[in-house]
Prior knowledge:
Shape: elongated
Radius of gyration: 21 Å
CATH architecture: Orthogonal Bundle
Structural class: mainly alpha
Distance between the termini: 66 Å
Helix content: over 70%
CATH superfamily: Tetracycline Repressor, domain 2
Number of strands: 0
Order of helices and strands: HHHHHHHHH
CATH class: Mainly Alpha
Number of helices: 9
CATH topology: Tetracycline Repressor, domain 2
Amino acid sequence: xxxxxxxxxxxxxxxxxxxxxxxxxxxxxxxxxxxxxxxxxxxxxxxxxxxxxxxxxxxxxxxxxxxxxxxxxxxxxxxxxxxxxxxxxxxxxxxxxxxxxxxxxxxxxxxxxxxxxxxxxxxxxxxxxxxxxxxxxxxxxxxxxxxxxxxxxxxxxxxxxxxxxxxxxxxxxxxxxxxxxxxxxxxxxxxxxxxxxxxxxx
Length: 202
């Protein structure tokens, strides 16, 4: 078909696509800001300055700081879930978990954000409560499924209660990250590796 006959996308669709790209770029930038400076002590105006956009634009896309935080958490879950799934598929859960903890040791700001948000979101009135509670359930279910895969592959002890082990592992991961935030001498990977080895088939 000649170029002259090509139908251009409607202006509204183009504006929407550009707006979504701008929104995604703001979320990525805000994630870095939260990782470096935290969340509680920043106003929406300060976040806008740090991200490099106007306060008006930030309010246009997200409305308030809580909605921006929700977008950051969703983006982080999507990114981390894809990466973890790839790592688990390549190495299996028991080998991959210590590698994840080594990775987490390189992003202290994000780990601090995760830890603080989980603690704050215990309050049912917190704007991220439902999301954080759902995230915890999804992560525990994913660990349970990966433990089942390890058992099917013959890597896991037969006497392991998978539901209990999934709860223990997720609680240990969150707990050791808190300990590490308080004392960077804690070797998170070694702690998780030791627990994983206790689950292995000998």
